[in-house]
Design goal:
4 helices; 152 residues; PH-domain like; 8 strands; alpha+beta; single chain
């Protein structure tokens, strides 16, 4: 196994205090609305999802290292064999590379998105052509824009 290419990217979202206040207010509003409307299960699910989100955010790495080898792609401590990668795409917003999208054949994880920038996008694309098929139709969707806008 030979390391072909690697890069790191930050997972820091740089949210302002107002983001946390607004998100907290929205969660509290939905929970209270669920209780008032006798939708107790909805309130419970909202609390559960919010707690899970906070847990994942607080326990995730600040920097993610991606290593491309001849056998797999390693993302932090997870290995993805090329046989499990259906296809890949480098997704651009206007002319700026945003991320490498890996569509996987794994039961629980269907898509993996790894941050990229223009300086390495071409090289990553050239390397990935040797191991997986490129999805040329992939684009920066409204959902991607919304996630980026809300800093989720």
């Amino acid at each position: 196994m030979e390391k072909i290419f690697s890069w790191t990217f930050s997972t820091d979202k740089k949210r302002w205090q107002l983001w946390y206040i607004t998100a907290g207010a929205i969660v509290i509003w939905f929970v209270l609305w669920g209780i008032i409307s006798s939708l107790y299960i909805m309130s419970f699910v909202i609390i559960l999802v919010t707690g899970l989100y906070i847990y994942v955010e607080n326990n995730s790495e600040d920097e993610v290292e991606v290593i491309i080898t001849s056998l797999w792609i390693k993302v932090d401590n997870n290995f993805y064999d090329y046989s499990k990668i259906r296809n890949f795409a480098v997704v651009y917003n206007r002319d700026q590379a945003q991320f490498l999208r890996l569509n996987l054949n794994i039961k629980w994880i269907k898509t993996l998105e790894l941050k990229l920038d223009n300086s390495i996008a071409g090289e990553v694309t050239d390397i990935m052509h040797n191991y997986a098929e490129e999805d040329e139709k992939a684009e920066y969707t409204m959902m991607d824009k919304l996630i980026r806008l809300l800093k989720l």
